[in-house]
Write a structure and sequence with these properties.
By secondary structure, this protein is α/β, with parallel strands linked by helices. It has 2 domains: 5-123 and 377-383, Rossmann fold, CATH 3.40.50; 132-315 and 340-364, Dihydrodipicolinate Reductase, domain 2. The chain has 10 helices and 19 strands. Strand 2, helix 2 (39-49) and strand 3 (52-54) form a beta-alpha-beta unit. Helix 4 (74-86) packs parallel to helix 5 (101-114), helix 5 (101-114) packs antiparallel against helix 9 and helix 7 crosses helix 9 (340-359). The model has no long low-confidence stretch (mean pLDDT 94).
Length: 385
Amino acid sequence: MSKIYKVGLIGCGHIAETYFRAHKYFNNFKIIKCADIKEKAAKKCASTYKIKSLSVKEILNDDEIDIILNLTIPKAHYEVSKKALLHNKHVYTEKPMAINLKDGKELVKLAKKKRLYIGNAPDTFLGGGNQKSKELLENNLIGKINLGNMIFAFPGVQSYHPNPEPWFAKKEGGPVIDMGPYYLTALVNLLGPAKEVSGSIMKGVKKRVIGIGPRKGKKIKVHCPTTYLATIVFENKSIIRLTLSFDVIAHGRNHIELYGSNGSMIVPDPNMFGGSVYTCKKLGEKWKEYKTGKMPLGKINIRTKSLRANEAPINANYRGVGLAEMAYCIENKKIHRCNGELSLHVLDIIQSTMKASRTGIKQKIKTTCKIPKRFTLKEIKKILK
């Protein structure tokens, strides 16, 4: 039986529900206390999930807490994670780990100095869809990956979030910071670290209309680009074309397509855990389907009417597995997959994409990372209930 790590949650917003739901699936962590800068939000969360609410200062100083789960807004990630580390807590943060590379490097350095673990979402690359894709690529099914296309495009966060202003803020707003971590982490998991990036930007509209909640119908200002078109060159010489947009009503393209020397692959939605992988090895040949519905982290477990981008009507959603896998690695003194090095490299790609797109000047990626090892069935079973 694994040790059950006691988790203190900071940031009782929209995403907290997802992590509480993870209790149903994983056996080695439990959220026991929560905090928020808004006392009312913390008390509501505590009441809903029958846990204790504290102030942020109190939860950081609480000796009962092993891990801080940082679910604050992106611009607060660095500050809260740093405080957690300084209070000798391991920390797992929603994406991105910080909103600039300097802060991200400081967090990784501090965690290493304190001999603490720092982990970061997304953990969707640990799901059946991306792991099956990784298995097929490692078995050289379609040969060396030369090219690829990747797209995330929809009308915008305001359609499903009652308080969408942070997603349209000047520094931390836009689709690259919001959805880039899912897609870029999936690509690094499959192809390895990136080398350079170029790109361009646009802003679709100057104002957005909130589509849900008590402020429905209210117009908010857009302070950032809402579409990015980028080309990323990886260290293995693969070239991937990336589209990330809050300005598209609908499209018919696959989320990720990879084109190898011996065939092509369709990788399922990296914002989800399941989905089928498809390959084609000959022109005109029917695409072969590899189902993931029977894989432990690929089984459909959510049926919802939610309009949230990460809550498709029927899907596999095991968010929290990254936290569980980190807890397992803390106990067994292993390197976790959603680690600081990987997250820092993804943050570097994000920042470089934004700068290259804004300036029109190709950017070199300053960091690198090791490619995460495939998440084996044996390892997964150790953290599942």
